[in-house]
Design goal:
The strands form 4 sheets. The protein has a 5-stranded antiparallel beta sheet with strand order 2-1-5-4-3. Strands 7-8-11-6-12 form a 5-stranded parallel beta sheet. A two-stranded antiparallel ribbon has the order 9-10. The relative contact order is 0.08. The longest helix has 15 residues, at 146-160. Helices cover 41% and strands 16% of the residues. It contains 20 helices and 14 strands.
């Protein structure tokens, strides 16, 4: 509804309603001077609403890349409302917070745009960021799922102990995000956070990588080298994919956990291990213990606190929230103005099982953002196995980002009948980048 700025929010009823709504609301004039700010907006911006009035919105609600992604400016210049944009508010001495923004122009009586009103909602998972001070990693793991919200609610208590934590969940569910969150909330938050993928290290190098080695321990050991335990001193060590740890190494990890000390390879002195260990795996360790593939004593030592992170298919209500957040990051990285996902495309996203969980969803949205030339992502922009709706789930599989980029580039070239220059213009990349994306697979095709 077109309403003159001078009447906003003119009557007491309107003002009372705006002051008490859960969403943040503020209004600016053509010079982006804040003319109104409700309590919710002041709370998110960490400022008194009365002090916000008279200052520029950029001063009060600092946004990442504010000059280039100002939704209010676009709204007033194009004289049209814009809905569901994701931006990140920058706040001094406080963690940044992602918000979902909707804006509309404010009209003078004669039909001229004289300002704009913005409504935004905190997307940090029901206020997790404000409660978990300084905890930015959870911004990327927002949820409306009751079970996962309860897990996040307990994180501060879990973090304050120094007990070992075992994170269980499928690949791509965000186990490292939770590990970093626990570290940030703990008394060790000021120390280092060191992550090591136990499945990526060769077995013959595992001991030296974890515990380090002394000069002369082997032929090429010309000087001492600290291991991951030493690098994580006074901090947190994440042993990711602990289920892939060789059986011989499990006894040495167990001793380090129990004795809180270890011996570097080739060393004769015991080194104290002032490290909090968090382990993560997508395997069923209980079954591995029964099959004799994982030490029972290490399993019980690791599982002092066990956190099971549900896969994305068990919390479909989080898909729209995660899609909006990924789109927000895509808007920053790609020179396109993608506002939303169409209901038809969202229906297909909600119907998908996500074997690759959040990581797969991020790849899907990035792929769609590459193909989308308008403001709305449609089903035709989704990967091929999602374009057929729910029936496409049978052929779905988790794919790497390289595969997704390759498919996007290949389809762009095909759409332009092999004209690579035209494909580059559509994708907004250089010919060298296109050549690298297509690589040998294109040459073999």
């Amino acid at each position: 509804m077109k309403r003159p700025l001078e009447t906003f929010p003119g009557d007491d009823t309107c003002a009372f309603a705006l002051e008490n709504v859960a969403d943040a609301v503020f209004a600016v004039d053509r010079d982006f001077i804040v003319r109104y700010c409700n309590l919710a907006a002041g709370e998110i911006a960490r400022t008194d609403p009365a002090e916000a009035v008279g200052r520029t919105c950029r001063e009060v609600f600092g946004v990442t890349n504010c000059r280039t992604v100002c939704v209010l400016r676009q709204c007033m210049e194009e004289a049209r409302p814009i809905a569901n944009r994701i931006v990140t508010l920058k706040r001094a001495n406080c963690p940044d917070v992602p918000v979902c923004v909707s804006v509309a122009p404010i009209w003078a009586t004669g039909g001229t745009v004289v300002g704009g009103v913005q409504v935004f909602r905190d997307l940090s998972g029901g206020g997790f960021v404000s409660r978990l001070a300084g905890l930015q990693p959870l911004d990327d793991f927002g949820t409306r799922d009751a079970h996962l919200s309860e897990i996040v609610r307990m994180l501060p208590q879990i973090a304050q102990s120094d007990s070992t934590v075992l994170l269980l969940g499928e690949s791509g569910t965000g186990k490292e995000v939770f590990a970093r969150a626990i570290h940030k909330l703990s008394q060790r938050g000021g120390g280092p956070f060191v992550a090591v993928n136990c499945g990526a290290l060769p077995e013959q190098l595992m001991e030296s990588e974890l515990f380090g080695y002394k000069s002369g321990a082997f032929t090429d050991a010309r000087k001492d080298k600290p291991g991951r335990f030493a690098l994580a001193d006074s901090g947190t060590l994440l042993l990711d994919e602990i289920g892939d740890l060789p059986y011989a190494m499990q006894a040495k990890i167990l001793r380090a956990l129990q004795e809180r000390s270890y011996e570097p390879l080739g060393g004769v002195e015991t080194v104290p291990a002032d490290v909090r260990v968090i382990a993560a795996t997508n395997r069923d360790l209980g079954r591995m213990v029964a099959e004799g593939k994982f030490r029972q004593d290490l399993y019980y030592r690791l599982s002092v606190v066990v956190i099971r992170i549900p896969p994305l298919r068990e919390r479909p209500g989080d898909v729209p929230l995660l899609v909006e957040r990924v789109l927000g990051r895509c808007r920053m990285a790609v020179t396109k103005t993608i506002e939303s996902v169409s209901p038809e495309a969202m229906e297909r996203l909600l119907a998908h099982d996500y074997p690759g969980n959040i990581r797969e969803l991020e790849n899907i949205i990035e792929y769609a953002a590459i193909l989308c030339q308008g403001r709305v992502i449609e089903p035709c922009h989704l990967p091929e196995h999602l374009r057929g709706g729910a029936s496409g789930r049978a052929c779905a599989r988790a794919r790497t980002m390289a595969e997704i980029r390759f498919q996007a580039a290949r389809e762009a070239v095909d759409r332009h009948s092999g004209n690579r220059n035209a494909a580059c213009r559509e994708l907004g990349i250089s010919k060298d980048t296109l050549r690298r994306i297509l690589g040998r697979r294109d040459e073999d095709a």
